[in-house]
């Protein structure tokens, strides 16, 4: 059974060698590593090429910078394995990752398998029992279990059957949106131990987007909710939808709070106008400070810069 490991690369020169070495160190030998250089301006692509010269199981694809979603989609299209795995170039697998996952696939004949992982950011927390197994949406929504794209192996034919790809319009939450789309259909089995490591990289896409991430998360949540409404058939569908709506409301509250700050304190009026055109009206559905936030939403949604300046002036005096 051949496993295709998809590795997008962008500005990870300090870490990529360790990531590739973790693949080379796998006890399970039947894999290919498809590295997609997404126009990385550092030496990471050259490091990848040096490995490819030594091991024919590694191939490097170079493309202009188009984002991690396009890079992962390119990797999926160029892969030849029966199953697909993902590994970001600043993270790494433990040596037994592939062997444990393949053993579970062979014994259960599953289309998707998941394992725990160790999270460097949260003091090396293990995520972790209870492991996500069964329907991933229900695990996520009903049991608040952590899920991470690098901890999955997925049958490629399954992705092709349901035409599931990474959405290039979402920066930051694209991996969650991908998981949720295929989680609508698939039952996942679990390997009951952590098999990979999530590294906190302050220069990663997730940590450099900042405010943009919230806006993209809102757009992704809308898409996720509609996808679940249209395609999910579980008895717990209503509960799952309610959970994702709660996530949307929580992120909408963050966006409203940040937008209010941009108006009142930073006076970034033109930027706010552009953002509102892209992402539409702000809501105040979150339970926290509901009356105050309803007032703020009305002010923001007015698109009235004169009113914003007045509110900013009054706020400064108070």
So, the CATH homologous superfamily of the largest domain?
Spore Coat Polysaccharide Biosynthesis Protein SpsA, Chain A
CATH 2nd-level architecture of the largest domain: Alpha-Beta Complex
Question: Taking Cα atoms only, what radius of gyration do you get, to the nearest Å?
Answer: 22 Å
CATH class of the largest domain: Alpha Beta
Roughly how many Å apart are the termini? Answer: 67 Å
Largest sheet geometry: 10 strands, mixed
Which features would summarize this protein structure in a list?
alpha/beta; 2 domains; ten-stranded mixed sheet; 13 helices; globular
Nutshell version of this structure?
The protein is α/β, with parallel strands linked by helices.
Written overview of the protein:
The chain is globular. The chain has 13 helices and 10 strands. It folds into 2 domains: 3-208, Alpha-Beta Complex (Spore Coat Polysaccharide Biosynthesis Protein SpsA, Chain A); 235-317, no CATH class. By secondary structure, the chain is an alpha/beta fold. Helix 5 crosses helix 10 (237-264) and helix 9 runs antiparallel to helix 10 (237-264).
Give the secondary structure arrangement, pairings included.
Elements lengths: L2 E7 L6 H9 L6 E8 L5 H11 L3 E6 L4 H11 L4 E4 L5 E2 L3 H12 L3 E8 L5 E3 L6 E2 H8 L8 E4 H6 L12 H10 L3 E12 L6 H5 L1 H21 L5 H28 L4 H11 L10 H12 L3 H13 L1
Parallel strand pairs: 1-2, 1-4, 2-3, 6-10
Antiparallel strand pairs: 4-9, 5-10, 6-7, 6-9, 8-10
